[in-house]
Amino acid sequence: MESFARGEMTGPEFAKTWHAARRLSPERNERWRDPLGQVLNHLFFVLEDYPIDPKLREPDDTTDDELLAEARAALHRLA
Fold first, then answer.
1. How far apart are CA 17 and CA 30, in angstroms?
2. CA gyration radius for the chain?
3. What per-residue confidence (pLDDT) applies to 37?
4. How far is residue 45's CA from residue 23's CA, in Å, rounded to a whole number?
5. C-alpha span between 14 and 4 (Å, rounded)
6. Taken in order 3, 15, 52, 13, is the CA torsion positive or negative?
7. What is the pLDDT of residue 49?
8. From residue 66, how far is each of 24, 33, 44, 72, 79 by CA, in Å?
9. I need a surface site. Which of 4, 60, 70, 72 has the fewest CB within 10 A?
């Protein structure tokens, strides 16, 4: 998330990395407690509406700018 917020990766790269990490989380017995859980769950739902392939973008989908703003907001809330 920090790399994305600093501009070191694109929205699609961040989304792919996020989804891969999220899939591994249960295998590692990771449990998120609040407030971390609330912040990460919110970002998860933002990413659910983010199309990794820009060709598949629909009018109500999360844009790259919105995703970046949400990631930065999440980092701010976690700081």
1. 17
2. 13
3. 84
4. 15
5. 6
6. positive
7. 95
8. 25, 25, 13, 10, 20
9. 60
Q: Which one-letter amino acid corresponds to residue 26?
A: P
Q: 60: which 2 tokens?
A: 């109500």
pLDDT in tens, the chain (79 residues): 999 999 999 999 999 999 888 877 767 776 767 788 899 899 999 999 999 998 999 999 999 999 999 999 999 999 8
As a residue count, the chain comes to 79
pTM of this structure: 0.86
What's residue 23's pLDDT? 78
**Whole-number Å distance between alpha carbons of 20 and 22:** 5
Residue 13 DSSP code: H
Q: CB–CB of 51/57 below 8 Å?
A: yes
The span from the CA of 5 to the CA of 13, in Å, is 12
In this structure, the number of other CB atoms found within 10 A of the CB of residue 18 comes to 20
